[in-house]
């Protein structure tokens, strides 16, 4: 039970941190998911379209248009012509939003890295096995997998 209680406390802290980040950047959960995905894609040199955002966030194309419109108006995203397909556009995170995210989220990732780095190699292997098994146990089963 102590393992599950520690995991619960970490999840609560993680949720509180995510909520604080959303409030700081004045974004909702879908907005944050889209921005995180866009930032990762930009780092990898990938081109992201509205369709990619809809798939990642799990929303309709109409909702994706509203999300993009809202984030463009707020100065978080920019639309650009797609370099290979004139029928669509690509979406990028503005430099200001990328910087704000790096400053807030980046500091948190650094703190998490420090915690992991302070552990012995054997302890890290145990944690990785535990979290991998937990992720597998949490995969939707039966009726949940079909929804």
From TrEMBL:
Domain HTH marR-type intervals: 1-136
Family matches, as SMART domains: HTH_MARR
GO molecular function terms attached to this record: DNA-binding transcription factor activity
Origin: domain of life: Bacteria
Gene3D superfamilies, alphabetized: Winged helix-like DNA-binding domain superfamily/Winged helix DNA-binding domain
PROSITE patterns per the UniProt record, alphabetical: HTH_MARR_2 (PS50995)
GO BP annotation list: response to stress
Pfam families attached to this UniProt entry: MarR_2 (PF12802)
Name of the molecule in the record: MarR family transcriptional regulator
Taxonomy of the source species: Bacteria, Bacillati, Actinomycetota, Actinomycetes, Micrococcales
């Amino acid at each position: 039970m102590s393992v599950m209680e520690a995991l619960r406390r970490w999840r609560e802290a993680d949720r509180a941190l995510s909520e604080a980040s959303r409030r700081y950047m004045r974004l909702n959960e879908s907005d944050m998911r889209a921005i995180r995905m866009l930032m990762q894609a930009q780092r990898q040199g990938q081109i992201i379209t509205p369709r990619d955002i809809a798939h990642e966030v799990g929303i309709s194309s109409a909702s994706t248009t509203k999300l993009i419109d809202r984030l463009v108006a707020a100065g978080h995203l920019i639309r650009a012509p797609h370099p290979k397909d004139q029928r669509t556009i690509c979406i990028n995170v503005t430099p200001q939003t990328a910087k704000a995210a790096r400053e807030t989220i980046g500091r948190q990732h650094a703190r998490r890295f420090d915690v992991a780095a302070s552990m012995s190699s054997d302890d890290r292997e145990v944690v990785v096995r535990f979290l991998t098994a937990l992720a597998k146990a949490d995969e939707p089963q039966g009726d949940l997998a079909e929804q």
